[in-house]
């Protein structure tokens, strides 16, 4: 367990997963074992969304790749690369064609192994500052590799009537619950304010959109995404791809207590 500290802020990271963020003792992150979700955060890469209706295959310029929901990155293990009192950096590295065991098999998937026809390196960097917690993702790999990226953090709710505010628009917890497993789309948005017992501002760079998901009243996932996967048929997920170029790509999320 990695622990970061800055003034009144405490962060806990378990094998690259954000499992705790406290400010003055107030916990903002959904805790494992609580109703709702077995994790507290994960990344969706190189695809976002389900693939079962497409026989767990995604079309790429190098042929079809076997991918389960939200991609294979979540099935890989992070390695700690650097650490200080306020910072930690983790990395996953993938070699094209390597088979990765699918944890959803056989109960929720017909595919025992997943693979991707491109090399990539994925870095996750945490930093505590006077403003709050910043998480940065850096992606590098084969030029022209297609990809989508989503970050999937779950926030603990302390009140019965929290709201999610986007400018003057207010989204309630029943609004999110009503959409169910598809997740509520929030297009063309880089900033969301979660109003609960304490307010939390979530600002992003590079993603462009959000989606909101929960199936329980004690947590909500506020997920920055590059593409909303339910906008297309599963067999056409490639429509949401971006491409890597010779430079690395960076995406960031700032979690700022108000």
UniProtKB/TrEMBL annotation:
Its cofactor is Ca(2+). One of its GO terms (molecular function) is carbohydrate binding. GO terms for biological process: carbohydrate metabolic process. Pfam families: Aldose_epim (PF01263). InterPro entries: Aldose_1/G6P_1-epimerase (IPR008183), Gal_mutarotase_sf_dom (IPR011013), GH-type_carb-bd (IPR014718). Keywords: Calcium. It comes from the Bacteria. Monomer. This is Aldose 1-epimerase. It comes from Ulvibacterium marinum. The lineage of its organism: Bacteria, Pseudomonadati, Bacteroidota, Flavobacteriia, Flavobacteriales.
């Amino acid at each position: 367990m990695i622990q970061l500290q800055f003034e009144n802020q405490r962060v806990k990271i378990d094998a690259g997963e954000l499992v705790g963020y406290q400010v003055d003792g107030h916990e903002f992150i959904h805790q494992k074992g609580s109703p709702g979700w077995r994790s507290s955060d994960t990344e969706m890469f190189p695809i976002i969304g389900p693939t079962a209706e497409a026989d767990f295959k995604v079309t790429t310029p190098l042929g079809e790749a076997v991918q389960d929901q939200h991609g294979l990155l979540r099935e890989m293990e992070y390695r700690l690369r650097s650490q200080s009192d306020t910072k930690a950096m983790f990395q996953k590295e993938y070699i094209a064609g390597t088979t990765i065991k699918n944890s959803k098999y056989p109960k929720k998937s017909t595919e025992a192994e997943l693979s991707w026809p491109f090399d990539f390196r994925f870095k996750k960097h945490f930093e505590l500052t006077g403003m709050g917690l910043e998480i940065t993702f850096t992606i590098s790999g084969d030029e022209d590799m297609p990809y989508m990226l989503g970050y999937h953090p779950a926030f603990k709710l302390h009140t019965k009537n929290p709201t999610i505010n986007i400018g003057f628009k207010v989204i309630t917890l029943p609004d999110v619950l009503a959409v169910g497993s598809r997740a509520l789309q929030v297009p063309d948005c880089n900033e969301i304010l979660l109003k609960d017992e304490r307010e939390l501002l979530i600002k992003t760079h590079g993603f462009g959109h959000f989606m909101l998901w929960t199936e329980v009243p004690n947590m909500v996932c506020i997920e920055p995404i590059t593409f909303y996967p339910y906008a297309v048929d599963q067999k056409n997920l490639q429509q949401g791809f971006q491409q890597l170029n010779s430079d690395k790509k960076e995406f960031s999320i700032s979690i700022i207590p108000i």
